[in-house]
Amino acid sequence: VYDMALIRLATRRNIPMFGICRGEQLINVAFGGTLYQDIPTQHPDTTVCHQQQEPSSIPTHTVHLTPGSAMASITGQTQLFTNTHHHQAVKQVAPGFSVTGWSSDSIPEAIESSHEYPIWGVQFHPEALATAGDSISARFFYFLVQKAATYRHAKEIHRRILSLDTHTDTPLD
């Protein structure tokens, strides 16, 4: 419940969001999308093991990224070798969002807002890969920090400089 409230609050304030694993799933549901509740039973023809036995720092499967998407721009790649630890995943992407990354069995692995909202999500764990030294996964966090700094700067400008007079009857002498 609190997670959904935070997503709505961040959206109203246009705060950049990057959802990882369940975070991506929550973003999708908060905006009206649906989930596979259990990939093995709801997508039995899957050819990818989405619950790897190896540690999170070891990539085990490929995610294909849409060329020109924010995800491809962030990483500079159209394919990522990632980790995977989930049995749930985006099924119907939420209105206003696009699937911009998927595994070879067509399970969505990355989504991003199609609107002006600064919202992205991935099903895998780039934090584990970045901590293990993967510079491509680290780019997600550099990007998020850059977006957060831009947000903070814009908020500061509005706080210090911008003021609006909404009184249309105020004389302009």
Q: In the CATH hierarchy, what is the class? A: Alpha Beta
Largest sheet, order of strands side by side? Answer: 1-8-7-6-3-4
Biggest sheet layout: 6 strands, mixed
The second-level CATH architecture is 3-Layer(aba) Sandwich
Q: Which SSEs are present, and which pair or pack?
A:
Blueprint: H1 2-12, E1 17-20, H2 22-30, E2 35-36, H3 39-42, E3 61-65, H4 70-75, E4 79-82, E5 89-90, E6 97-103, E7 108-113, E8 119-122, H5 126-131, H6 135-160
Parallel strand pairs: 1-8
Antiparallel strand pairs: 2-5, 3-4, 3-6, 6-7, 7-8
Pfam family, one: Peptidase_C26
Keywords: Glutamine amidotransferase, Transferase
InterPro entries: Class_I_gatase-like (IPR029062), Peptidase_C26 (IPR011697), PuuD-like (IPR044668)
Mind explaining what this structure looks like?
Helices cover 36% and strands 20% of the residues. A six-stranded mixed sheet has the order 1-8-7-6-3-4, sandwiched between helices. A two-stranded antiparallel sheet has the order 2-5. It has a single domain, classed as Rossmann fold. The model has no long low-confidence stretch (mean pLDDT 91). The chain is globular, with a radius of gyration of 19 Å. The protein is of the alpha+beta class. One of its GO terms (cellular component) is cytosol. Keywords: Glutamine amidotransferase, Transferase. This is Glutamine amidotransferase, class II/dipeptidase. One of its GO terms (molecular function) is gamma-glutamyl-gamma-aminobutyrate hydrolase activity.
